[in-house]
Amino acid sequence: MAIASEVTGTSDRWDQLVRTLKKRAFRSPSDSLTSVFIFGLMLYMAWMLLDWALFSAVWRAEDVEHCAEAGGACWSVIAARHRLILFGLYPYDLHWRSTLACIAIVATVVLSCLPHFWSTSKLVTLWIVGFGTYVLLMDGSLLGQAQVTTDQWGGLALTLFMFSAVVLLGMPMGLLLALARRSRLPAVKGAASLLIDFIRSLPLLTTLFAAAVVIPLLLPDWLNGDKIWRVIVGFALFFACYQAEVFRGGFQAIPKGQFEAGKALGLTSFQILSRIVMPQVFRHALPSTINMVVVTFKETAIVIIIGFFDVLASANAAFGTVEWAPYYIEVYAFVGAIYWIFIFSLSQYGEYLKARMSVAKR
Amino acid sequence: MDAAALKTRRKRRELILQTLLVVVVALIVWAAISTAQTKLDELNMTSGFGFLERATGWAYSFSLIDRSIDDSYSRTLLIGFMNTLFLGLICIVLSTVLGFAIGTARDARQLGLNAVATVYIQLFRNLPLILQLVFWYAVLIHMPGPRQAYSLGDALFLSNRGLMLPALNVSPSAVLGIFACLVLLGFVIFRLKSLQFLHKLGLWLVAGIGLTLILASMFTPADSSIFSIPAQKGLRFQGGLTVSIELVAMILAITLYGSAYIAEVVRGGLHEVPSGLTEAGKALGLSSRSIWFHVKMPMALRTIMPPLGNQWIFIMKATTLGVAIGFSDLFYIVSTSITQSGQTLELMGLLMLSFLLINYSLAQIVNFINARLALKGH
């Protein structure tokens, strides 16, 4: 049987498709009618979309005058302005540094999805190296290159920077908060719970706005730092408070016997935590953590409101001239596609992990 | 050293540690306050809530009640609070209804429905809300002007000035009165014991529309009709209700995004219902509609309700994005007030307090519904 199905693999799959269609799309006349209508409509819309995006589109920046009569998308605006969208106001002749920096961050994210890197030490090293590479390349002064200060970072490069800095800073903060919330000491526990519940009940924008506008009032000037770092710390605090709840769920999944077994072996509390408990907590919390990371990537777009030149802000700038103003849909489609690909692949990866873990539990 | 001594030592150490924590936190707070004090003194700012009675002197886009630029800060903030609640409630209702529909379609046997729902969810869930918001706003401001407005049956118009809807020809205070009557009616109907939920809902809708028409006809001015239908008069529209494009964009973006998330919550809930129950329903000869209403949904609601409550809170918080397109929600009003009056700490305090209040109340409502849904004796 196994050999037969291997030989006729394609026809088997075909049979299965036919069976599914029979069962789920063409079971009764009214069912068939609905299916034909819906699939017809979807095909028609897909065709219209393809026609707009590909067949009737104008591609080259020089052909912009044909855009009005072409009837399709005017990708000329992307051809002409993609560098602005991707890198913002970063010096034009140094864009290779931004490009490499973005690749470093994306590679870090991709590598940390591989099971080979799933140990705390490896992940921490990987992220510090990836993030460090980014900062070194973008800033440039330590590499003997011309220095580019943070106020000139922009576009997708800035979005990726915010995202990775928030995750890198927020993860240990979240772990600390989760541990504090589990503490035996009422003062520690109370302070952590209060902070977590407070931040979680506020909109992210409030936290970021407070970091950008209120904190400078409360801190002495020498402690204030760059606006970008204040916002990142505020964002990381927000991330940490949600991530702390994720970790808390992980802690709750671990039976008490594990702690007791550790104690019986004569391990110290720190050893029990780092060698027995934490690896399991991370494993349990993994799918929800990926979820948080996805949400964080999506939410970075909000920094446009407090005046950062992220990919969305540079998109707005890209069609901000008279010449390109009519082609805002193309620009938003381009930026939307970038976000969509990142978020979709990350969240599909999360779904895959969830499925894999529920199989492992059985 | 014996165990008791060790224990007292540990107790003492823990006490010292906690005292230290409290002292450090208190010190930080004190240092922050005194820094703020000196900085505000340098700027010649007075702290406190006295500014609330001053006139603002600036205009903003949307308000449910009468407004002018001579309004005091407290009235302006109240208007912002009302706008946030208003927008949040509309979006919560719309995205819950849409989310249940899409979530059911995602769970459907019909492959076509399933595919549409999947595409919808994957499209709207995987894009940042703010991107969707600025996109819809850009689309709406590029709409044709009032002369070439899109229309539906000459009663509903969409142009770059906003969405014109037919409305009841009554004063705002009468609308408030009618709304109160509707809530009261709902309260009475939903207390009835003998009816099922859906019948109650149907009864409330039918009776509500009837009651609205009767009340509206009593309050309309003598020489005009009960409905006010928008009509084009030269370069603008007259009559009817105009919904500004900022509000349309906010409702559109938040509803599409929120409903995609709620749909996933609903699908998860429906997925948890054991298939044996559905089969039992079929064996009893129930139609698939009755199975959904009487078997699947009541079972699923218990799993759906807690995450649904989280989504509602999320939607309330999402209204703050209105500042990106100039919709005058609470955050917009507060941030404008901060730049205009400089009373940063007081205004941020009010903003936080308002959101704590809104979210706490929502959480209480969800808890109440949860308690009502819980199986007796469990």
UniProtKB/TrEMBL annotation, chain A:
It is a multi-pass membrane protein. Residues 156-350 form the ABC transmembrane type-1 domain. PROSITE patterns: ABC_TM1 (PS50928). Keywords: Cell membrane, Membrane, Transmembrane, Transmembrane helix, Transport. SUPFAM superfamilies: MetI-like (SSF161098). The chain crosses the membrane at residues 32-50, 94-114, 126-144, 156-180, 201-222, 228-247, 331-352. The keyword Glycoprotein does not apply. Pfam families: BPD_transp_1. It is found in: Cell inner membrane; Cell membrane. It comes from the Bacteria. NCBIfam families: HEQRo_perm_3TM (TIGR01726). Belongs to the binding-protein-dependent transport system permease family. HisMQ subfamily. This is Amino acid ABC transporter permease. The lineage of its organism: Bacteria, Pseudomonadati, Pseudomonadota, Alphaproteobacteria, Hyphomicrobiales.
Automatic annotation (TrEMBL), chain B:
InterPro entries: AA_ABC_transptr_permease_3TM (IPR010065), ArtM/GltK/GlnP/TcyL/YhdX-like (IPR043429), MetI-like (IPR000515), MetI-like_sf (IPR035906). Belongs to the binding-protein-dependent transport system permease family. HisMQ subfamily. This is ABC transporter permease subunit. It comes from Roseibium porphyridii. Residues 81-366 form the ABC transmembrane type-1 domain. PROSITE patterns: ABC_TM1 (PS50928). NCBIfam families: HEQRo_perm_3TM. It comes from the Bacteria.
